[in-house]
Amino acid sequence: MHPHHKHSYEYSEIGLNCMNKSSVKNIGFTGVFRLMFKPLVDEFPCFGAVCFSLRQKKKLDLTLKVVGGDISAIPGISDAIKDTIDNAIEDSIMWPVRKVVPILPGDYSDLELKPVGTLEVKLVQAKELTNKDIIGKSDPFAVLYVRPLPNRMKTSKTINNQLNPVWNEHFEFIVEDASTQHLVVKIYDNEGLQASELIGCAQVQLRELEPGKVKDAWWKLVKDLEVQRDTKNRGQVRTPMLLFLMNF
Questions:
Q1: Cα atoms in the Cβ-side hemisphere of radius 13 Å centred on 48
Q2: Which strand (E) or helix (H) includes residue 230?
Q3: pLDDT per position as a tens digit, 94-124
Q4: In the chain, how many domains are there?
Q5: Does residue 172 share a domain with residue 82?
Q6: Which of 57, 181, 195, 220 is the right S-S partner for 31, CB 3.0 to 4.6 Å?
Q7: What values do phi and psi take at 247, rounded to 5?
Q8: Which residues have a Cβ under 8 Å from the Cβ of 48 and sit 6 or more positions away?
């Protein structure tokens, strides 16, 4: 192998169908993995390490049970636990997060995930939200994130009894890969001691942003970011955002 090939890399994608069963829960998901072999070297097997990551999670199915009954019988609890598990799986292995497996001795720190910039977001307001309350109006609040880690998810204040809430709150997020990551905004109805009910959500691809230039727009809320067949009007949210990239 020629020396000038040593810092190139290749990747392939394979389908995955994984099922993990236990007495408490069944977790099954399908998706496509990305494999990267880097760096290429003269020594067998011709690459120093393997990076793998879930490029796209297509489906996640969960069955949650506890001793003595099905946990789904408890209103709101099943959905909350499923969201937590879904977020944990997504952030532990979803691209750009990657697992690095050294094959040959060496320093592969350059393959690890690193910050490349920041995203500044102003949660201004929402309008025409679906009312989730039988008496009165919804009490909306927003959850925003680029990566669904508990310490990197931002939560707004709650605006009581309002379908056109105004927040005017600022948030900042770390960006690791502007070409594939996205901002997620989820609007919930605060139900007090009960589990909050999702009103709608929106997703903005960071690759659609011009670094250093504010993008101000209204984003349509949908029921599910994975299913694009939702035609019901759930409202809109306005989030001006500004992307800063290092060495840009």
A1: 16
A2: none
A3: 666 666 667 677 766 666 678 899 999 999 9
A4: 2
A5: no
A6: 57
A7: 60, 30
A8: 38, 39, 40, 41, 102, 103, 104, 106, 108
Contact by Cβ (8 Å): 139, 189: yes
Classify burial at 174, counting beta carbons within 10 Å of its beta carbon; exposed 0-12, middle 13-18, buried 19 or more: middle
Name the region of 83 (left: φ>0; alpha: ψ -120 to 50; beta: rest): alpha
Concatenating the DSSP letter of every residue in 89-110 gives: HHHHHBTT--EEEESSSS--GG
Among residues 111, 134, 169, the one where a domain terminates is 111
Specify the length of the chain in residues: 248
Give the residues across from 155 on adjacent strands. Answer: 143
171: which 2 tokens?
């948030």
- Taking only the tens place, the pLDDT of each residue in 31-58 is 666 666 666 667 777 766 776 666 665 5
CATH number of the domain residue 204 falls in: 2.60.40.150
- Which DSSP helix (H) or strand (E) runs through 124? strand 117-127
Domain co-membership, 102 together with 141 = no
Whole-structure pTM value: 0.65
Residues 105 and 148 in one domain: no
- The single-letter DSSP state of residue 150 is G
DSSP 1-13: --GGGTT--EEEE
Of the residues 92, 111, 130, which one is the last residue of a structural domain? 111
